[in-house]
Amino acid sequence: MKKTFNLLFTFLLLSTTASAQEATVPESPKKPMSLQVLAGSQGVGANFRYVLNPSVGLRVGGSYAYAGINDKINMSGFNSKNRLSGKLSTIHGLVELMPEKFFRVVAGAAYMPDAQGNVHFIPKDSQSFEGITLSPEEIGTLDFNVDWGTFAPYLGMGLGRGIPKKKFNVNIDLGAYYLSSPTVKATGTKLLTNNDPNAAIIQNNMKDYRFLPVGQLNFNFKF
Amino acid sequence: MKTILKKLTAVLAVIIILYASCKNPADDVEIIVNTDIFKSPTLIQFVNAKKGATGPQDFTVQIIGPNADLVRTSTGGRTYKASSGLLNLVLDRNANPTQTNPVQFTVSATVPGFAPVFQDVIIYSATQPTFYKVAVAEYANPVAGSSSLVTTRELANGTTNSEITLTTPTNTGLTLNTGITIPTGTSFFDATGAPISGSQLESRIIYSGSGTNGLSPVLTGGNVSRNVIDANGKPILPGAYLATIGAVTIDMFAGGREVKSFSKPLIVDMEIKQGMINPSTQQAIKAGETMPMFSLNDETGQWKAEGNANVITNAAGSLFARMSITHLSVWAIFEPIKVRDFKFTVHDIAFPVFDSQPFFCQLPVTVTRPASANAQTFGISGGIGTEFVDFGPGETTKTVTVTTENSSAKSITVQPVATGSDPVPTYVENVLSSAISFGCNAVPTFNFVAPPVAEVINADVYVRFDCTNKSLQTGINAIIKVTPVGATEDQAQFYNLVNGKASGSMRNGVTYEIVASVDGTTYKSQFKADKNNFVLPSGFDLSGSAAFDPATNRLKIEGFVRRNCN
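^ Those are the sequences you sent over. The predicted structure of the assembly is below.
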């Protein structure tokens, strides 16, 4: 099971390590705005970026991510088809401090309409217990839903020039959202309706799962 | 660029450290599978007919009768074993008992030292629990109003070479006796009709008569039956009260086999109390009369008319009912009085209603309870049949008419009934009984009193099997017994666990014993109800803990039975 959660988080970290592609044209003080298309661990999205002065910039935008993997959870005695999925959507506002040309400190917060994970179990085999044999159809299905709340502060850094010198450049953001401690809810059907104690166990196990790492590539279009 | 790479590496390292420090979310997770797939949870509690004496504990039970194929153990098995005197049963998923189409079967058992166990079980609801308390007579410890005889006599190659007379002893609770005469030259046959050859005949006899306490004889399986065949061979519908003069249970064994019939009829002379009223004539029974005699089919639970017994007197002037019997079973002399109807409580528990007649008196019985937002049903026993009274939410007083025999000797007992949906309450006394003797014009009142509020703890119980061989748990489905340690057996409360869960109330500072019987295995625990968090004490079958929430005054008790799951 741990392996599976690792996979989910690994998925969320995908494609964050590309190098910045820098244009070398001089910065124009008359063009402080850019549109940013992003792709990374928080999914895909867009930002509007406005530079107040050479040291401070503002970004507002949103992102959306959804990922899922099948049949990666193995539980002793409970052979199942299962799907582990995560959904993250953000509307965020960020402030950038730019002490150096290629390095930015980024802080802000996000409103997260969706910051959720889900594990869906469908039993594969009949279960026998003390003479009772139950078919998978009789047993039902089980979902564990993990919810990290709707608000999260963000702290990170940016690598690469914030505003392209010319029309386009690519830069990187690395950081993390500090999420609320997750709440876990179990929803079962038929014979799996009493798994609330397991939801409490998972919630306790995940109480420290509060850092959502962000690694993203930003494609910037100056206008 | 070198600086940037250093910073990037540092950030990634921090992320990895933070991520790796988290605990595996699946640690300790064990999927919980409900097993409440069956219907009609039923508890049969076997107790010693003599109050306070130890009843039968662990023994194998037979389930027979018309719907026996629908009966399972609470985990779905078909091997029935009682443990600690408790037997939890359920009905198969295909069963659909209703008030008009109940499920019926018979529970029987043979327990060393006790008279044969027999109980007709009728289930009317697929969801509500059914509870039977079966009083079992112990040969060495007869209840008031009964006596027993266990004796061995010589046989010559399976045949009596002289007349054998077996006479039950008298005691302080019963001054009457029953004599059984086995004629010379009688040979014995087993259930298949095959002759039994043996050198010894062991007889086990229980006689129930009119006791010195004035109470009428109590029949095996109860005195209200829905399965009586009259002298014309027709069923008495919907049932009958069996106004009993006396009953005798006879078991015989020879050559290691159970005797079922004989080559010559046995003569049974059952003594009748002088002045006893004949229910059909309302006059004192006298010599020269005949009285209907019945035998019990212990495979179907059916009482069948077997002709008449002749009332005779002996040389001393004592009255006897003389029966000639051709097979062994429970034999009784009674007048079946037709039940007018069976009524039902809101929990689908049936109880009989009778037409008024001189043989009966109608007692207005008042039951009061403390104010409660919960419904509650009380059982009233000691009358013609157990009756029930339903309290709706908020109701505190109810008066019901209880039918009793028209005699001065009565003992009315009132106690809460375990139901499937209502939390189990606790009272200062959980069982109330009347004096044993009062007239027909009495107005008995039973007041159930709540303990002081500060002493009451509302409790939620959650008991699960935790499979040691796979990551599975399942809530126990059974009716469990919860008894304050040191209290009498009567004070036991019964919690109906559905997927391991039930609710009730307990008294702060009282130590309780929990007894659950599942598939012939007993699981026990003991704990002191306390307004604090605590761990269930070690040394018992349940491990777990309890958490108290002062805001709601609720104690949540989680117990686990760790076992290998097949």
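DSSP finds three helices and twelve strands in chain A. The helical segments of chain A are 2-12, 136-139, 196-205.

Shout if you want it in another format.
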